[in-house]
Amino acid sequence: MSTPELGLPMVVPAPDLPARVRIYEVGARDGLQNEKATVPTEVKAEFVRRLADSGLTTIEATSFVHPKWVPQLADAEQLFPLVSDLGRSSGVHLPVLVPNERGLDRALALGARHVALFASATESFAKANLNRTVDESLAMFEPVVSRAKAGKVHVRSYISMCFGDPWEGPVPIHQVVRVCKALMDMGCDELSLGDTIGVATPGHVQTLLAELNEEGVPTSALGVHFHDTYGQALTNTLAALQHGVTTVDASAGGLGGCPYAKSATGNLATEDLVWMLQGLGIDTGVDLARLTATSVWMAERLGRPSPSRTVKALSHKE
After folding, report:
1. Which residues, in sequence order, are CB contacts of 185 under 8 Å at separation 6+?
2. Closest CA to 193 of 173, 170, 222, 229
3. Within 113-250, where are the H helices?
4. How many other C-beta atoms are found inside a 10 Å radius of the C-beta of residue 236?
5. At 290, which helix (H) or strand (E)?
6. CB atoms within 10 A of CB 215
7. Residue 248: beta bridge partners?
8. Deepest of 15, 82, 266, 305, by most Cβ within 10 A of its Cβ?
């Protein structure tokens, strides 16, 4: 008998936490693009459908970055039509990553209604990942946001290296705030604060959130994206929840990793997040058993076990 059938985790709410959290599922995009293996298009589509069936309502489907840079997601044009009906029939949001206007064109041509940009808080990462300075990348994003908003398309922006950079070390909070404000000012609907190399700690998280609020960026527009390199992802998530954040990025089964962080264990696993939130009495709408089964299914197709501790515990697999 599995622990959920025994009534575990026991629900013990904590004070001053949100009643509901929206999980922004990134496994099908951020997770799979960092896997060594290229997954067949039909398997990706089935993965997205199983994630939706588990109760997840925001599932990042793919990326319209040039295939040369992300070969694992070179099939974006083939994949998106296989899952786009979920948005119409089930109300599931299927955001896609777009790096520039060309990526936006490709996404809009297939009917995407939610897009995401990929910005950087540091010059080193902007140069390495976007081949531009921070300001040059912001200038590149302006027409993307403008055109998307003109078409009533929801725009999110990831901001990488919000807490630390592998080349520059600690990232000054005012530097992160400047980039966030610029993105909000150009019209982004929401921002995802990325701990790309997994070095954040709870005090750092809450201080950054407070500084953003002081500069006019509301908590309601913020999500958090933690990597578990040093085992801090859940702790940092709780710190963000205590501040009032209600959007948390996570990857089913803990798929993916960060090529810039040595020994990185990758994204926060969605199952680990759901286990904690269930214990706190916070609603997610997610069926943990179905989600776990989905991650086991995908792990089998990738030929390796899921790194999620909750998946291991509930599936009795090491």
Report:
1. none
2. 222
3. 123-130, 134-150, 173-185, 202-214, 233-243
4. 25
5. helix 288-302
6. 13
7. 23, 224
8. 266
Q: Which helix (H) or strand (E) holds 292?
A: helix 288-302
Instruction: For Cα atoms 105, 106, 111, give the angle at the middle one, nearest 5 degrees.
Output: 90
Residue with token string 């996570």: 250
Task: Give the chain's end-to-end CA distance (angstroms, integer).
Answer: 17
CA 82 from chain centre, in angstroms, equals: 21
Each as own residue / partner, the long-range contacts of residues 140-145 (CB below 8 Å, 24 or more positions apart, any chain) are 140/100, 141/117, 141/183, 141/186, 142/186, 143/101, 144/98, 144/100, 144/101, 144/103, 144/104, 144/115, 144/117, 145/117, 145/183, 145/186, 145/187, 145/188
pTM (2 d.p.): 0.96
**Annotated active-site positions, please?**
258
pLDDT digits (tens), the chain, 318 positions: 457 777 899 999 999 999 999 999 999 999 999 888 789 999 999 999 999 999 999 999 999 998 888 899 999 999 999 999 998 878 899 999 999 999 999 999 999 999 999 999 999 999 998 999 999 999 999 999 999 999 999 999 999 999 999 999 999 999 999 999 999 999 999 999 999 999 999 999 999 999 999 999 999 999 999 999 999 999 999 999 999 999 999 999 999 865 555 545 689 999 999 999 999 999 999 999 999 999 999 999 999 889 999 999 999 744
- By residue count, the chain amounts to 318
Are 285 and 25 in contact, with CB atoms under 8 Å apart? no
Q: Are strands 169-170 and 164-165 parallel, antiparallel or unpaired?
A: antiparallel
Map residue 169 onto helix, strand or coil.
strand
Would you state the structure tokens that stand for residue 190, as one six-digit string?
A: 């929401």
* Contact present, 137 and 186 (Cβ < 8 Å): no
